[in-house]
């Protein structure tokens, strides 16, 4: 027997209470009048004491009751070892695909069912299925959870040491950013895809592309090859600040990559986006130089914080040495290690305004030295509506599958698997029942005990 909270056993010290009560048995004496000495007057009250246990049964019952309560505080349990012969297995299959899967793999599924396997829906909740579900019925809505999420969730539900047979396709777009890590033995049986060719229209950096996808890959071909409208950008730099060179270098890289013509500080016309690199308040004239529905990227001023941290962009952390205290409640685009905004976005008037709580200066952070700098600025310059997914499309029609050389999951080592062959069986219910019976017995004996009197 083991205890979840052994410190609860200190309550066993309470046994001293019934011990003291039973040992310190004080009896009040009774005055007895005798005729020959009655004239001597009233005698003083007398009492007697004894240091012995008069009722051993009550004493034992009360001690046992206190011991059981102490054990309940410590939460006792037994470690139950699961033998290999008792391990069950799971069959995971999407309920929508179950009729088709059973038709193609009936022999395999029947064999697994005879060996004690259970069929579960490969969706949130992993509801139990039966062969009755092979009958075509109403199709349930498609679950948008990735395979990584589902397989990781199953790791908390699958019986210890069980094997899992998963009937599912291995399309790349069904996985998350990471492969799942599981503690059970997974046998993945890939399904043949009914549609192996698909196409759709995608937009990236202001251009339209036709995407053609098959199991081996996806190819994008530009549709509008004509010259796009130039992107006009105006930059204002305050006195003593020399950060514009980093912006200009990034803009040239963006123009070269996207094949978009970028004009910096155009002599005439409205700008698509304006960079205000100054500690001063943005002037009205600078705002008016930006076209309606354009963007304003401005340095924020305020208290300078020098606590070491990092800028979190696209899952990567870049060293951050100095930043401006941010109290803005706008949408956070880039954050620091404390979750505060380094770049925030909000709509002010007819402009999309970006508040930058740092500087494009290596003394403030390492952003300008990292290739991520160009990628992070690109959706701002191109004014993409979904900057978090900019250039990384996850289309439902994507037909690519995991390479045969790539494992679909990462299985934990054998040591981790071995630790799952034991389960904890709580004993609290047994102890509660025993405590209730002992308490009832103790009460019955206490009420039935009759006081003893001295007879004349």
UniProtKB/TrEMBL annotation:
Pfam family, one: BatA
Aerotolerance regulator N-terminal domain boundaries: 1-76
Alphabetic keyword roster: Membrane, Transmembrane, Transmembrane helix
Organism per entry: Pedobacter miscanthi
InterPro entries, sorted: Aerotolerance_reg_N (IPR024163), Double_TM_dom (IPR011933)
Transmembrane segments: 6-24, 56-78, 427-445
Protein name: Aerotolerance regulator N-terminal domain-containing protein
Keyword Hydrolase part of the UniProt annotation: no
């Amino acid at each position: 027997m083991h205890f979840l909270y052994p410190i609860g056993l200190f309550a066993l010290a309470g046994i001293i209470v019934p011990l003291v009560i039973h040992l310190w048995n004080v009896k009040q004496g009774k005055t007895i009048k005798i005729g020959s000495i009655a004239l001597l007057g009233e005698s003083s009250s007398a009492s007697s004491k004894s240091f012995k246990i008069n009722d051993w049964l009550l004493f034992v019952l009360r001690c046992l009751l206190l011991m059981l309560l102490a054990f309940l505080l410590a939460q006792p349990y037994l470690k139950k070892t699961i033998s290999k012969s008792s391990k069950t297995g799971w069959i995971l299959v999407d309920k929508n695909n179950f009729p088709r899967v059973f038709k193609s793999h009936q022999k395999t599924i029947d064999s697994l069912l005879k060996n004690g396997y259970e069929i579960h829906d490969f969706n949130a909740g992993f509801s139990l299925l039966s062969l009755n579900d092979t009958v075509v019925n109403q199709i349930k809505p498609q679950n948008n959870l990735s395979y990584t999420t589902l397989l990781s969730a199953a790791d908390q539900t699958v019986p210890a040491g069980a094997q899992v047979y998963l009937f599912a396709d291995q399309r790349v777009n069904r996985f998350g950013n990471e492969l799942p890590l599981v503690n059970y033995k997974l046998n993945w049986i890939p399904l043949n895809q009914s549609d192996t060719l698909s196409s759709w229209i995608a937009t990236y950096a202001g251009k339209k592309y036709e995407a053609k996808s098959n199991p081996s890959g996806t190819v994008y071909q530009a549709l509008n090859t004509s010259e796009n409208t130039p992107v006009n950008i105006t930059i204002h730099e305050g006195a003593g600040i020399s950060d514009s060179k980093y912006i200009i270098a990034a803009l040239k890289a963006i123009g070269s990559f996207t094949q978009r013509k970028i004009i910096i500080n155009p002599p005439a016309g409205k700008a698509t986006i304006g960079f205000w690199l100054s500690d001063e308040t943005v002037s009205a004239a600078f705002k008016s130089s930006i076209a309606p529905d354009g963007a304003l990227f401005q340095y924020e001023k305020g208290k300078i914080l020098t606590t070491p941290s990092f800028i979190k962009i696209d899952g990567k952390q870049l060293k951050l040495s100095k930043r401006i205290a941010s109290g803005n409640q706008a949408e956070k685009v880039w954050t620091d290690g404390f979750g505060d905004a380094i770049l925030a976005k909000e709509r002010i008037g007819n402009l999309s305004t970006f508040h930058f709580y740092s500087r494009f200066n290596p003394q403030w952070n390492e952003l300008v030295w990292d290739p991520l700098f160009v990628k992070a600025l690109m959706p701002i310059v191109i004014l993409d509506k979904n900057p978090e997914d900019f250039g990384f499309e996850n289309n439902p029609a994507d037909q690519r599958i995991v390479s045969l050389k790539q494992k679909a999951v990462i299985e934990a080592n054998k040591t981790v698997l071995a630790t799952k062959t034991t389960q904890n069986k709580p004993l609290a219910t047994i102890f509660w029942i025993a405590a209730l019976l002992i308490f009832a017995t103790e009460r019955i004996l206490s009420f039935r005990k009759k006081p003893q009197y001295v007879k004349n």
